[in-house]
Amino acid sequence: MKITENFIKDILKDEYMDFFQEIYDNSLLIQYLDKKMKAIHGNSKTRRSLANIYAIYSILYYYKEDYFNKPQEYKQFDGYDYMKLFCFYRNLYGGSRLQNHALNSRVNNEFKNKFSDKIINDLIITNNGKYLLHIDYLYVCNKDISKTVCRIIKTYIDLLMEKDHALINILENIGNLNSYFDKRKQIISLLTADSEARIFEIISYAILKNHYKNIKVYFGYSLDNIKEEKLKLYKTGRTNANDGGIDFVMRPLGRFFQVTEVGNYDKYLLDMDKVMHFPISFVIKTEESKENILIELNEYIDIKSGGMRVIKERYYNAIEGIITINELKKWIMELDNNDIKKIIKDIEKYYRLEMNI
Prior knowledge:
single chain; five-stranded mixed beta sheet; 12 strands; elongated
């Protein structure tokens, strides 16, 4: 059976040398973790599975200290208290927002689905608010693998941290540049069609926020009380959130912005449907011209509508604007040095928030 993640293979080789493959082939627990750890080389949409992994890790962390190579004693153990485990994994990297679903049922359900033809017992045993791992999954070829599994999980966490801090290191290097022209160039270099979706959304927000704040509008209920206001852009939530098709909102105009990618125009229509066809400005991770994107989108609407005028107009009118990487790059070059400094701070602020750093 092939080991997917190289770091897991390296750890098993280090621990068990020539027997590493045998350990892997006979350990459903290690195989399960191997399937759950793709995020270290995936994109922003790859699930990190921290809740499930940390539920297992929290139990193993205490088990290896108390019951490593003590099978008879462990068989008499009632389990670790929920609050002890909960507090432990809440303090792990990226664990501050995790709930208790993984401990209570999620891990067991998923474990059964992946190995339905091989398992008899649940991985996590629930005992009146206490939790422990079934001994069947802790011993492989008469070896207690708990310390090995903890090492695998710890390495996974370290690799995620390294990946997450990469952008912060880049931003620190940009901030240390003396020339604002060089700072602009470095920010622009982060805007590519291949950039990670999460990073693109955060960078595009920082650029748009600082671009629009320099634009003035005039509002009032009568000619006598018209006031000057600067446009303000607000980020509505986290990236990849199920937010109903609204990533940014502008005040006082009430514009909606949705960050997306070229490829599946059906998703654009779905975003319009979610907000009941309220006009949306699409911020698109592409270097194609906004004119070409609009032509392609309108052609897709024509096909999707089957020629029905009511449907076509519904979607036509819901497209307020198209913003691509080209516009974002242009607007960066128009901003002054103080705005560039604010863009760098905004990117770091919202990236740290996104990654719970």
